[in-house]
User: Fold this.
Amino acid sequence: MINFIFKRILQLIPVLLGISVLVFLLLYLIPGDPAMTLLGQDATVEEIDRFKEQMGLNEPFIVQLGVFLLKLVKGDLGDSIFQSMPVADIIMKHLPATLELATLALIIALIIAIPVGIISAVKQFSWVDYTSMFFAQLGVSIPVFWLGLMMILFFSVELNMLPSFGRGDPLFFSIAQTIKTGNLYYVVDSLKHIILPALALGLMSAAFITRMVRSAMLEVLKEDYIRTAEAKGVKGFFVVIKHAFRNALIPIVTIVGLQFGNLLGGAIVTETVFAWPGIGRLVITAIGQRDFPLVQGTVLVIALVFALINLVVDILYTLINPKIQQ
Amino acid sequence: MVALKKMRWLAIVIAVVMVISGCSYEDTNQGTSSEGSSAGANEIKVALDIDAVSTDPRLTNESAGKRVNELVYDGLVRLSNNLEPEPSLALEWSNPDSKTWIFKLRENVNFHDGEPLTAEDVKYTFDTLLDPEFQAPSLALYDPIESVEIIDEYTVQFNLSRPYAPLLSNLELGIVPKHIAEKEDKSLSSNPVGTGPYKMVKWEKNSEISFEKNESYWGGESKVSKITYYIIPDNSTRVASLESGDIDFIHSPLSPQDIERVKGNDKFNVVETQGLGFTYLNFNHQNELLSDVKVRQAISHLIDKEVISKSIYRDMDTPALSPLIPASWAFTEDVPVFGYDVEMSKKLFKEAGWEDTDGDGFYDKEGKRFEIKISTHSEDPNRIQTAEYLQNELEKNGIKVEVLTNEWPTFSTNMLEGKFDIALLGWLNLFDPDRAMYNQFHSQSGSNYGKYNNEKVDALLLSGRETLDQEKRKEIYNEIAQIVTEEVGYNVLLYQGYIAMYSKRIEGFTPNASGNLYGLRNAVLTE
Assistant:
């Protein structure tokens, strides 16, 4: 197992390197540069040229790429052009918010999707099944920004129950504070902030995962061993959970892994609507400003998170079905 | 059992993620949460659309950075609500001759760290700003300053290379503390120290910027002890947060459809005034079709500014006349107007040799169809709609139009390189008529994207800079406005409106058309 993980991590290095070169090439090819945006409407042509010269933006592509890769090998992601801070620091300030949001969104999605998907499969073609499939279809179709805005208008403006924007203290930090002080306020405040964006983000995933769970379960419920188990007199509930759901887990885990990646990507819109200070908004702003080092670094980190999720999914496979390891 | 084991794994994974997401958090909150219990009633919460880039006034060029600087720094002068320079750090000033300005500084003014402000700081601020290596975005506005001399501890003299009337309006720039700035080049970019009414105490990137009042402010202590800027990028969320009471003050940019709703709510003040910018069509005079003034005029007769203002901007921005904005002392209504007139347009096209000879619905000349591109940038949905409206209107009347929308960096690079036919964009912060004129219409200027070229206008622009008498300047700029409007150097479509919406709890504050929030220091919060 350790060998397997180690090998997989080694395989990551060329992948990440490839991604870096690809992103660098893309950024090089799209027209526009940070100079005009940074220097603003009063800048003269000479100033813009001087800035590009200083930033090394006038160098040939190969030179720019070489400089970037040399830094990268040393573990240096460079400095942001706009925020005059190391890229690594900026990412570390924004990544936790996105991971927290995506994790909670995924938990919400699983809490909804697994029971609903299982019940839909077991009671196929019943009203329960139709209703849940209708909502799943709805969940896939509703745009996140619209849903988010409606939630804000309802829960914040109408009911005045929840904050309309922003992040409280990080959840993990609040839990620690609450344990330390015995005051529930901290956790409640953080949860109040995160619940709407996590719901808005999680509902779409819930819809996807529900459909996946349902179809995987339907597949398995037709198998002979299920009939055998039932014939042996195992209770329905145990058949469904222990025999069927366990075997349906492989495709479900795959989709959950993919969904987590999607949540990181989907967080861009959610983060904008709810003013959540995460990496999605960061990368969008950076692309809009052509803050090349920051875009590079952020994409690289997101790719790394993706790769690590894939690794976790593969490890989970071997736990679910030990045969896979061989 | 196995299921349990699996759940345990999942729990471990989630726990690891939670730990990662928690570990890297530093507690900079000083015990208060954003809506924390200790946030007293004496705090004004403002929502902005973007985060600041730099809080060093010499490097700031975006609106959020300016909003920070207004609270933290003072300039030599401060522009009043009608754009007149008023004393700030400079008590008084004089002109021994047209190229010399002498400023007498206020004494006993301290920076937030307790160090006194002297002429040294003023000289240092402008010396560094004028150094090309420093790469100040607004360098061009200060270009005529040759040197800044210290006369004594509280007197500075600006020596100019040529008379420069717009100087005063550009001296609102915050004065930085030499003793901090010279130590480390970039520290003020994220830890500003000024002489202003508020000190910045916290800056969570992309999230919030907090200020506490400067108790020893030379202009008197503010009544509101805390101001916090929250960064809320989405226009509709910003309005919702005002309505829900999470935020006390928001202002432009706003979406027209949200404004009506707040107007109907008696908890809020909605102030609509003329802003300090305009939206315009830039004609590329190097394009062979558009180099003909008759063609530019013919196109102008097909543009209904009233419709654009009403249908797309919902009267938030108003139909414009010329590059002189109504908020300016140089404003004039005495300029040529190209009303919506299809017949007139046809006549002008015909005079320019364009007719529809092959009956395909589009003008042609010597076998060439009249085709142009209208470009704008994708960040502004109203501008995209306007470009599409123009496309529709022009295509009905014989002109084949392609609309191109690109992100700002691409779009602005194309502008700079002259790769456009007609472009839809805007100019902001027009504190002085020179600011939307000189760099835009002078034949030798970098911001003259369309390469408009008129010797008479060049000469007038120079004398507008070099004449110090305001009445005479007004005449000069009125004449320029008439010429560039007549020749359609630009077609200025709309005067940008400025809208501020805020809770009625805030009293004693008058919104300023530039969006300047310095006035919040005089505000009182009622319960």
Notes: The longest strand of chain B covers residues 268-283. Residues 125 and 176 of chain B are 6 Å apart (CA to CA). Residues 1-6, 13-40 of chain B have pLDDT under 50 and may be disordered.
